[in-house]
Design brief:
Low-confidence stretches: none
Number of strands: 15
Strand content: 15-25%
Shape: globular
Oligomer: single chain
Number of helices: 8
Radius of gyration: 19 Å
Bound molecules: 2,6-di-O-phosphono-beta-D-fructofuranose
Largest sheet: 8 strands, mixed
Length: about 325
Amino acid sequence: MELEQTFMNFLLHHQERHNRTYHFLILMDAIISAAKHIEHYYITGALKGNLGLAGKVNVQGEDVMHMDDIAHEIVIHYLRTTGRVIRAVSEESKEIISLNENEGRYFMYFDPLDGSSNVSHGLPVGFLFGIAKRNLDGPEDFHLRAGKDYIAAGMFVIPTGTLTIAFREAGTWRFHMDETMNYVKPVRITLPDTPVTWELSFNATNRYTYRKTVQDWVDRNERKYSFRYLGALAGDFHRILTNGGMFMYPAIVNHTDPAKNRPEGKLRLMYEASVVAFMCREAGGDAVDEHGTAILEIEPKDHHQRTALYVGSKALVDDIAGVLR
Ligand code: FDP
């Protein structure tokens, strides 16, 4: 029988090696409990009628809560129990959620169920999270942090039983859920250098809505790589991290219906773009916005701020950054 190292054991050694406290373990334990809970709800969701629209009645005759709201409630519950979180920013809450302003140590940014078009099919969605720490030595700079200030960022691809997490200057790691529902077997992820396996991932329907230089870049490059698109950032980025290539969600500026343009991009900076950019950097890749600016350098002005995103293998991101700047 082969027994694997658990995530918590891996993290314990990581903290000790870097002379760090155990507070972060308590936070990660809560995040993992939340992810398992969401995973359970999601797997049984179709059966119980929880994947439908909010406001409906399920097979037991109960009011259905939208799966997004259930996932949000689960995460907030577990974060609150740690006593370690100052404030949380969630995709599912307009307001910032204050948890433990005085004694908390971390800021948490999360999207508890990203990839909404997959929900009614029970297909993969993501629980994405980024974590920043209270400034313990100097003036407090609060929750609006650039991705470069995160201490960790990660994602669960639900319901596949995978956790991928990056620690600042300590790499990107993938874990799989075992039969006892523990995340085990750390494997360090680095983006492959050779382009043989590289993929491009973007919503192809939108290609003629991109600005001309981006459309031309797509024309020049699309035949060189395989194309894959699931429609859930966590799942699409999971493939890019392993196979290399680039995921992109460019700004929409040439829509036939101008009301549907999204010049700022679609994805959210703090709990989508910065999270994948952080994992990508720790795996040897990079990420930029529509101006070719590094995603991790963007100082957010609003906690729900949007951005365009180009993330993946450094050579490809550098190449497209050349036409964006
Ligand atoms: P969704 O709107 O379906 O929740 O940020 C949200 C996100 O999904 C990402 O997960 C995904 O990559 C992208 O948007 C999909 O958008 P399109 O449906 O426009 O392709």
